[in-house]
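hey so i finally got around to running the thing on that chain from the lab meeting. sorry it took forever, my laptop kept dying and i had to restart like 3 times. anyway pasting the input first so we r on the same page abt which one it is
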Amino acid sequence: MRAIWKGSISFGLVNIPVGLYSATRPANEIKFRLLRDSDHIPVKYRRVAETDGKEVPWEHIVKGFEFEKDQFVVLDEKDFERVNIKSNQTVDIKEFVALEEIDSMFFDQPYFLAPEKGGDKAYVLLREALKKSGKVGIAKVTIKTREHLAAVKPLDGALVLELMHFAEELADTSELSLPKKVDAGKKELTMAESLIKGMTDKWNPENYKDEYREGLMKVIEEKIASGGKKLPAPKTKAGKPTNVVDLVSILQQSLNQTKGGGKTKKAAKVSEKKHRKAA
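ok and heres what got predicted. didnt touch it at all, straight out
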């Protein structure tokens, strides 16, 4: 795995040399080309100037900030280097806080931190201290010309740097039209709690697959097999929206379904155990 950058974790007088690595893989996205409908010739994008429509090659493109309407100041690489702040090559930990105090809305993108030469002992020390304390380090770090708020957290044998949103980047729920208060009947609330309990399980990310991608690939294969002909419209039934009148019956149906599913799962496990014994 290739490091995005190499720098250090800093807290107090401690400096730990580390490399920053991506902790996620690109989404397994199905890519499409834009084509002209008449002959299926691929369509290309061109970078053109707004006034004369002439194409502009990459070597003649610069970065500009519009400070007034149609008035720009151009910044080059030397200008970006002039922004000399500590977080440029350092995960600068400002404080330690309890993980449960941070709203999950603040977390954004995870990265791995791995020790560089000479940093093993201090790296392990920080990792184990965070594990035992239940704390995370809140830091500033610059990645790709932008400063981020971030949290340093232990995960298995590694330290994870999770980029966070600044407070001003999060939208306020006051901007939404939300119900102020609705009297939930005791019966409905008890049934809803029972439904949640019945559907509660241990988190296992392997249980979840990209069903839309699988379905879309199936459609693509069918189109290829048909020689590109139009496929028949799918038969789908739109679900009825739940309303106050039938809320109790909907909850009861959901509970019955959950109980049935639970029995099916248990039966499947028993059958699997018997099969293993027989084998």
